[in-house]
Design goal:
8-stranded parallel beta sheet; two-stranded antiparallel ribbon; 10 helices; 36% helix; globular
Length: 329
């Protein structure tokens, strides 16, 4: 697979990474054996620089443990990314808190290292910005982890342009992770220009629109038990039916390129720039291999204009999350 420079500090990763969240929760039933086999296959396909993405909030904690078991005998073949900052309440799976206090940063990193079974994290993100703690204080603590050799590179997730500038002034930020796809393009207004001005890479999560752009989900009944997409605004009755207009356009364009709609959507993200690395999430080898094949799809300037025009003609219905107050701070 093609390798890309993520940021300007020297981190090189596979052009397509693997989001591991769904292997532990949020997207219905899980299968640890298949999940580990999928991670192993991702490493093989990426030729030794596979970007694996997890977080302490996934599970919570169990996804880091799963990833740790999967890479125990191949640590040097992966670029390991995890996150801190979203605090889960064990007694209420829906409850969320944000913590960016310096002492919490240090403690969270130590806990992640133990769960992952590693002595360093390649890319360590603040999962969400804490509005009650100056970003300078949070990133200052993250920089201490770099100095201690426990973290190699720093990242932010769902941060606004001003916050990114302030964070980068404290310590170089290598990557910002944000949702980015044909139905989530809000970061193009301010965040993406800021990243390119500062030489920061973009890690695009949910590049397939949480699976919507693959065509697998057309009605509310398509979501299994325990799948949070059933309560996501864009998948709610009314919004989902309106959003199918975008899917139909993507399917039509995919037919012209003799590929699956999800592959076209993923190829579009890959063509947004050499500084963009999508991390589609999957827990099955079959979908992983389909995603990787998208890297072989070449789109001309005319193709990209056609895709942009088609997607731009549709007004996406619904917010990305039920509560948007924790993103783009």
């Amino acid at each position: 697979m093609e390798q890309r420079n993520l940021g300007t500090q020297g981190l090189v990763v596979s052009a397509i990474g693997l989001g591991c969240m769904g292997m532990s929760e949020f997207y219905g039933p899980t299968d640890e054996g298949e999940a580990i086999a999928t991670i192993h296959r991702a490493v093989d396909l990426a030729a030794g620089a596979s970007l694996l993405d997890t977080a302490d909030a996934y599970g919570p904690h169990t996804n880091e443990q799963l990833v740790g078991r999967a890479i125990a005998d191949r640590r040097e073949q992966v670029v390991l990314a995890t996150k801190f900052g979203i605090v889960r309440d064990p007694s209420d799976a829906r409850a969320r808190g944000i913590n960016g206090r310096p002492e919490y940063v240090i403690a969270a990193c130590e806990a992640s290292l133990r769960r992952l079974g590693v002595d360093h994290i390649d890319l360590y993100y603040q999962h969400r910005v804490d509005a009650d703690v100056p970003i300078e204080e949070t990133v200052g603590a993250m920089a201490e982890l770099v100095d201690a050799g426990k973290v190699r590179y720093l990242g932010l997730s769902e941060a606004g342009a001003e916050t990114i500038h302030r964070a980068h002034a404290v310590h170089p930020i290598t990557a910002v992770q944000s949702e980015y796809s044909l139905w989530s393009r809000d970061i193009e207004d301010e965040v993406l220009p800021a990243l390119r001005k500062l030489g920061i890479g973009l890690v695009a999560y949910s590049p397939l629109g949480r699976g919507f752009l693959t065509g697998r989900f057309r009605t509310a009944s398509d979501f299994g038990e325990g799948d949070f997409r059933g309560s996501n605004p864009r998948f709610r009755p009314g919004n989902l039916e309106r959003n199918l207009e975008l899917l139909r356009k993507v399917e039509q364009l995919a037919g012209k390129h003799d590929c699956a709609p999800g592959q076209l959507a993923l190829a579009w993200v890959l063509h947004r720039g050499e500084d963009v690395v999508p991390i589609p999430g999957t827990k099955r080898r079959a979908y992983l291999e389909q995603n990787v094949e998208a890297s072989e799809l070449s789109l001309s300037s005319a193709d990209l204009r056609e895709i942009d025009e088609a997607a731009g003609s549709v007004q996406v219905a619904g917010d990305r999350y039920p509560d948007m107050s924790f993103v783009n701070r």
